[in-house]
Write a structure and sequence with these properties.
This protein has 715 residues and is mainly alpha-helical. It has 26 helices and seven strands. It has helices at 2-9, 17-44, 55-81, 102-123, 130-135, 142-153, 156-169, 184-197, 203-210, 213-249, 256-305, 308-314, 317-320, 334-352, 354-361, 366-401, 415-423, 426-463, 469-494, 501-525, 531-550, 552-555, 575-593, 610-618, 649-655, 695-700, and strands spanning 630-632, 634-636, 644-647, 662-667, 677-684, 691-693, 709-713. The radius of gyration is 26 Å and the shape is globular.
């Protein structure tokens, strides 16, 4: 209590102006350039066409989103500056929560795992083709995708690494979750429609279409390394989560390697057989569990402390700032996190994470994908920030007020588990650990499925062509199992010597993503960028990255913004800026020194030809005339060509459609989220009140006999 009283009674000096506002000015100065440049490019290229229905409102959504985060961060700084010194005089008198018994703990955790496996087995019935396995048939509504993306973005590593940084640095642990909006104009109206309309099955396939087969092979290596690294970090995270629980609370003496293998086996089983549909609906459940579990922990923590007011007054003013100090300390500072996580990480996650992109490609349309991405970034990510960080904030307050319960020297990566054990009952504690298991499963399942997509579509299919689709489906399932084992090997080999998971993840981002980021950005948004430039990015760019790793004091330090160099892992954050500058510079220089490529080579593959991509996707001129949905009974007509629905003239007028338009058919129960749905091509007949569909539509849509279906025109 003496230490706590001393901590809580000490005077705290005012926060200097540059400590509070310099990171904010840098964030919205540099980030604002990215945002406004992207918005200008989408408008100039007419990818965001304000004359098209719905596009005008998107302009205001984009600007409003930027303003939302601008005000959110600015308001947080003002609130921190308006707070006084730490002044809690009476430490909370709560104790450590009761330890759960082995039976209760194992019952809840294994019960949850059994539920997940049941989901995988149930939704495996929807896997008839590789399109189903990888993209869920491209049928789902935006809200299903948005919530399931929460579970993909909030991995188990998120709980541990952001709780660790929250414990060490306060509210600034939230800053890495709130940068994605800078790149939303280019994602929503550039990259997303390009890959959707091109019907690419993997990111490397885009590189072959845009450049060459050799570029595709280099991109395949980079993408596989990126995803396997993420899988490995997920497995390592779960081991770090469960080991103290099993040792301290259950008395089990197990190694991290044993835990990694056990988790990998469970994860691998259900994704191997479930596919993307299982991933989407399992993650829909898990996304809800993660949000509920995180807010339960927040509520219990505040109750243990005595309310939010106690938490707020127990934290030093610097810990209340939403942004870290500009260039120190070396293990967590604003400018390094901005370039590593906010730029390289955000672009990597949005533009290169095959697992995330496969989720958006499973949407029923590009517009539904835009809604999912915008809703996730504007609302779900801020909520997710609270979910993954709050254990660290609460832990910091507890350690200051009651160091006898949570010592200040607690291992940062164990803070989440320790705080959950202090503030919750045995049953709730087991539920919270199960929520972290959910986070791991949700991240890893997506990435294992994505690795299978890349391996089958970019490696196996080009070598073994002409086989039935069912053959490739079996190979995809087998590859999922292999990817699981590979993730375990990477986890045990490369990420063991970092102080925290956050720093391991940072070094991984700074090293692996820059060549991919440069290649995809220049390729999608600069038509002049050519094959020679792309190859130079992968080869020469990687060379300069290795040079920087070897001699960081010569190459990285001049760009490090005054950050001191750690001798063990030098510039694990600021290396991202040097690597990005190297890769972009090499790509631009080589492109300008080599010849132009014919325009037809990148037709429909850059932001300047999104309209051509739409025409190619439809197979005709898009019809953007507005209309309304039609609900009617249906019959199967074996005389109709595959993939065709026939409607009457009156229904055609209601739809705003015309012969050959793309149509979306779905069960009238919207809460299914598109589970029973399919796409079709419109044909006009002389029908009255009855819709005729071809037999394959009835099968692919999984429609139930006797139920009406809803028809909506896409374009």
């Amino acid at each position: 209590h003496g230490a706590a009283s001393h901590c809580c009674g000490r005077a705290v000096m005012d926060i200097p102006f540059d400590r509070a506002w310099l990171p904010y000015i840098y964030l919205y100065g540099v980030g604002g350039i990215f945002f406004l440049g992207g918005l200008w490019l989408t408008l100039r290229s007419r990818a965001l066409n304000r004359t098209r229905p719905g596009h005008r409102i998107w302009t205001w959504i984009l600007i409003g989103g930027f303003a939302w985060f601008f005000v959110l961060h600015g308001g947080g700084i003002l609130a921190a500056l308006g707070s006084g010194p730490v002044d809690v005089t009476r430490p909370p008198d709560g104790g450590v929560g009761e330890r759960p018994g082995a039976g209760l703990f194992l019952g809840i955790v294994f019960g949850y795992v059994t539920l997940v496996l049941g989901f995988g087995a149930f939704f495996a019935r929807w896997n008839r083709t590789t399109s189903d396995f990888f993209f869920g048939g491209r049928r789902f509504s935006w809200w299903v995708i948005a919530i399931s993306v929460v579970a993909t973005g909030v991995g188990s590593h998120s709980f541990l690494k952001y709780s660790a940084k929250g414990f060490q640095h306060g509210f600034s642990s939230s800053m890495t979750y709130l940068n994605d909006w800078f790149f939303m104009p280019l994602f929503l109206f550039g990259w997303l429609p390009l890959i959707y309309y091109a019907k690419v099955r993997s990111i490397p396939e885009y590189f072959e279409r845009r450049f060459s087969p050799l570029t595709r092979r280099l991109a395949t290596v980079g993408i596989l390394g990126y995803m396997l690294g993420y899988i490995a970090i997920g497995f390592l995270t779960m081991a770090k989560t469960l080991q103290p629980v099993l040792a301290d609370f259950l008395g089990w003496d197990v190694t991290m390697g044993q835990i990694v293998w056990a988790v990998a086996i469970v994860s691998g089983i259900y994704i191997t057989f479930g596919g993307q549909t299982a991933v989407i609906f399992t993650d829909l459940l898990q996304g809800c569990i993660l949000l509920v579990g995180g807010f339960i922990l927040l509520f219990l923590g505040l109750e243990w402390l005595g309310g939010f007011d106690v938490l707020w007054r127990a934290l030093p003013p610097a810990f209340k700032l939403p942004l870290a100090e500009f260039n120190s300390p070396e293990d967590f500072h604003f400018v390094g996190v901005f370039w590593q996580d906010g730029v390289a990480g955000s672009i990597g996650f949005l533009f290169l994470n095959q697992g995330l992109l496969m989720r958006f490609l499973a949407c029923r349309s590009v517009d539904e994908g835009r809604k999912a991405a915008a809703f996730n970034t504007l609302f779900l990510l801020p909520l997710s920030t609270i979910v993954v960080c709050n254990a660290g904030w609460i832990g910091r307050a507890i350690s200051g007020l009651r160091p006898d319960i949570l010592p200040p020297e607690t291992v940062p990566d164990e803070v989440f588990t320790r705080v959950a054990a202090v503030v919750s009952s045995p049953g709730v504690f087991a539920f919270l650990i199960a929520a972290v298991v959910a986070a791991l499963m949700s991240t890893v399942d997506t990435l294992i499925n994505a690795v299978a997509a890349v391996a089958v579509n970019d490696i196996y299919r080009p070598l073994v062509s002409g086989k039935p689709d069912r053959h490739y489906l079996k190979i995809a399932m087998g590859t999922s199992a292999v990817a699981t084992v590979a993730g375990v090997v990477v986890a045990q080999t490369f990420f063991g010597d970092f102080a925290t998971l956050y720093e391991a993840h940072a070094k991984f981002h700074t090293t692996v993503t820059p060549p991919l980021v440069a290649a995809v950005f220049l390729g999608a948004f600069w038509p002049r960028f050519n094959t020679a430039g792309a190859l130079a990015v992968f080869v020469a760019g990687s060379f300069f990255i290795l040079v920087g790793l070897q001699w960081p004091e010569i190459f990285i330090q001049p760009l490090a913004h005054g950050v001191e160099m750690d001798t063990k892992h030098p510039f694990k954050y600021m290396g991202a800026l040097y690597n990005l500058v190297s890769c972009f510079s090499v790509g631009v220089l080589v492109t300008l020194l080599t010849g132009r490529e014919k325009k037809k080579k990148h037709k429909g593959l850059t932001i300047w030809s999104v309209q051509e991509a739409r025409e190619s996707f439809k197979g005709g001129v898009p019809n953007d005339r507005s209309g309304r949905s039609v609900v009617a009974p249906w019959i199967v007509d074996s005389e109709l060509p595959d993939g065709v629905i026939q409607v009457g003239v009156e229904q055609q007028a209601d739809l705003g459609g015309q012969e050959g338009d793309l149509i979306y058919l779905s069960d009238t129960r919207r809460w299914l989220g598109g589970l029973r749905s399919t796409h079709a091509q419109l044909s006009v007949g002389a029908l009255d009140g009855v819709l005729r569909i071809s037999p394959d539509l009835a099968i692919s849509g999984r429609f139930l006999v006797g139920r009406e279906i809803r028809i909506e025109k896409e374009f």
